User: Fold Spore germination protein B3 from Sporomusa silvacetica DSM 10669.
Amino acid sequence: MQCRVIAAFLLGICVIVCGGCNAAREPDELAYVVAIGIDKSAKEGLIDVTYVGALPVTVGEGGGGGGGDQTKMTTEVTFTAPSLAESRNFLNSITYFYPTLTHVKILVIGEELAKQGIGDIIGPLTRFREYRGTNYIVVAKGTAKSFFKNNKPGVPGSASRYFETMMETSSETSYFLRTTLHDFYLRLKDADGTSYATMVAVNPQTMENLPAKTKAPGEKSEEYYVGDIPRSGSNPVEFFGTAIFSGEKMVAMLTNTETRSLAMLTGDFKRSYITVEDPLAPKHRINVNLRQGQKPDFVTSIVDGKPVVQATVFLEGEVTSLPSGINYEQAEYKELLEESLSQITKQELTLLVARIQEKDTDIVGFGYHFRSKFKKLEEWEEYAWPEKFPQADIMVEVKCKLRRTGLMWRTTPRR
Assistant:
């Protein structure tokens, strides 16, 4: 009986202690950090850390002496510190709100820091419990601080919702690809593929046309690097293209077209409009809404120690514009347009493969498809895929099928 009393007493103590909420804080006591920017500092060995936070603010007066409505005010502050942890200490020293990082949506890395190497930045982020693996990671052309300073969405809503929605819209064009902290870190530590991240920049909005390179034969749309889209008005900030890494260092940027090609090879391509030359009337253009038909197929082999890859990409399309009036709905004309689309896309994919081999960075992840060739992990590691990748024979094939012709099932010639 005495043991039961003691056990009940101890159980009651445990319930009281464990059921307490001594560490809880009210929402109006917190400063919610929604975005973090990290730049290389002008001071050797230090970094500039920019925090974008949402502070709870009371507006208006309630009746009977009560408080008004709660809203959130977005603010930003930059610190120079030796680490992210120390910059967080600084943040806590300037606000009476308690800073929390559990609602961070995006991490913006400055271009100079990305080229220097970000392994020492990414590692601690994955260890600290307040950073989530679902945080998006992007690289800013220029500095992250400038990106935040010039970012003016011009639409109502929270800053966190803006960043989250922007990244989710990547599937609409595949002109940029969303990358989470978890995905980036896995590729950083894995020798079978390398990391990449979305590029962001501030556009000068001068309407100057600065195409990145010569178009592929038959392609009518120009390709651009981030910050070079000829435009004016609206938010000067844009999400566009891709930063590619070799190890922990950024080695190059991809254009929008190269980014779309990357999405096709990785199987992350959803849809995108493409404007091509009319095969039978070159002065006219044809618009096609492309989408992924099925995941790409990879056939791999090793010939005399050299890796060989045959990659096949499957696309489906819907014709959305036929200015020439040619009846491409007819079987033989339809096949001609399908072949034209396949060849144009094949050229773009081939150019991308050549470029990433030149930069020695397997962002597509071809290495993953060679693992099954080896019985043991040690054998695969001894094969040293990163050293073999630049000399690999990689051939690309594209099979494009037109499934729909828009709202018209037959084009009638003009009279």
